[in-house]
Amino acid sequence: MKIQGCVAVLTGAGSGIGRALAMALAREGCHLALVDINVSNLQETAQQARHGGVKVTEHPLDVADRSAIAALPDRVVAGHGQVDLLINNAGVALGGRFDQLSVENFDWLMAINFDAVVCMTRAFLPLLRQRPAARIVNVSSLFGLIAPGGQTAYSASKFAVRGVSNALRVELAGSPVGVTVVHPGGIATAIATSARGPDGASEQERKTQLDRAAKLLRMPPTRAAEIILKGIVRDKPRVIVGNDALVLSWLERLMPVSYWRLLPKMPGSPPRMAAHNPAK
Predict the structure, then answer these.
(1) DSSP assignment, residue 236?
(2) CB count, 10 Å around CB of 5?
(3) C-alpha 128: how far from its chain's center?
């Protein structure tokens, strides 16, 4: 896919991978319709992207708001005239075992991480079909490849993103629209520090959870964006970001049920294994 002159709709553009992707796309001459719930972060990303000489429109909205998503295509077309690339990047995190999570928090996460992907795709697919070449890029996660304990809700949402992406790719075969699913590993963004924790968790429990997550978040978002953009340009159906995600994806293929036995230092390891690791 040729990026120069394209128009990309990008959710979660206010920070992290989203902001880095906006910068990378702008450098390649891609015009941007940026979406984020945080107005000030969105404005900052848009201002930086405009330095690349591309047209940038700002669309502050909550991707969990279906009516706002339904109205978005008309606003983007009014500003850009077309849509060539849809990147569903917005996401949130929710830590805790299944029995620790309220229905409200579980539904909150699913609405943003999965339902929004479905609604955005439904809203923009007719426009994408009109282009000679277009692409949908759905950002899943390493936890859309493996499922650690304590990440029930997050894994459920990211496996769902992976599933809908793979099925949609088959359904759109032969059309101008390709589908890419992205599985980032530990990227140094604020998703862990801004995550919701289990209901009733103490401050110490939350601090322990954040400390564990921080040790795994190492790759700069700029590097992740480079890898994702390269995958888009090459029309890759799946992009795995980071050596951690690559190694664990292969381990899951080899040992789809028992791979956790080899990973005592990972969050979600069985307690009997974690007890042997003083750092846990």
Answers:
(1) -
(2) 12
(3) 20
Q: Which of 155, 76, 72, 64 is nearest to 104 (CA)?
A: 64
Interval 45-51 mean pLDDT: 97
Q: Is the pTM of this model over 0.70?
A: yes
Options 114, 124, 143, 154, the catalytic residue: 154
Q: Length of the chain, please?
A: 280
Cα angle 16, 22, 27 (rounded to 5 degrees) comes to: 130
Q: Cα(64)–Cα(117) distance, rounded to whole angstroms?
A: 10
Q: Which residues contact 8 (CB under 8 A, 6 or more apart)?
A: 25, 30, 31, 32, 33, 83, 84, 85, 86, 87
How far apart CA 170 and CA 180 sit, in angstroms, is: 11
pLDDT tens digits along 70-83: 999 999 999 999 99
Backbone angles phi, psi at 241, to 5 degrees: -110, 110
The conformation of residue 131, written as its DSSP 8-state character, comes to S
| Contacting residues for 146 by C-beta, under 8 A, at least 6 apart | 155, 248, 249, 251, 252, 259
In the chain, % helix, strand, coil (3-state, to 5) comes to: 50, 15, 35
The yes-or-no answer on residue 259 being catalytic is no
Q: Which two tokens stand for residue 280?
A: 């846990």
The Cα angle at residue 151 between residues 137 and 103, in degrees rounded to 5: 95
Q: Are 106 and 196 in contact (CB under 8 A)?
A: no
